[in-house]
Amino acid sequence: MKIVSWNINSVRFRIGIVEQFLRAADPDILCLQETKVIDGDFPIEAFRALGYRHVMLHGQRMHHGVAIVSRVPIVADDRLDWQANSEARHIGVRLPNGVRLENVYVPAGGDVPDREANPKFGQKLDFLERMTRWSESLDGPTILTGDFNVAPLESDVWSHRQLLDVVSHTPIEVDALGRLQAAGDWVDLGRHFHPAPARLHTWWSYRAKDWAASDRGRRLDHMWARGTAATQARAHSVFEDCRNWLKPSDHIPIMTEFAF
Fold this sequence. Notes:
14 strands, 25% helix, 6-stranded mixed β-sheet, globular, alpha+beta
């Protein structure tokens, strides 16, 4: 089973490259973040035409939004409010084999890494803390994927020294993500199959005139697993070429293959 995660940055605006990717990579399940659409306007027929007939949505107009589309049956639609303000940032389902699949869009956290000066940064840290408390109560094989908006390792960013004070790579965020990982005994599948310091970036800013030439990437998108879901993982891929496609997202898809 191939499971993909992709922050698409507006699914309706980029439906063309989504269809292109699904035809090329042929995943069984696609987890999307930042869909930026209410459920009633989600382009569901485009996915059904490609065989993704099982769809779970948690949408929001113009902002946030997550979705899971699948070729295999999925049930148990959970929507946890880790942001504590009803933003659409999580959706969870159960696969036919009983494995839980959790799709999350962690807040970016603004520009200033200070809770007092920047409330958005505090919201991000609180979001990760609520996820940590949730992880402590988990029982059974689970996959957690999505845009975590944290690049935890030195090799997960283009320059560790220059980004130490930049939101997404600050020590306080890295520590918060580490507590989350420890709480659920999660295996970081990206680094399991591509150990540091291997290149594994998943995001490049739109601000760069030539993203590939400047190559200032960060690994913000992750696939974690626990229990037998982790031991059944067989490969992990990133699709950097998608950043060159027409009207690209600033994120690229990541995919893990499982021997379920």
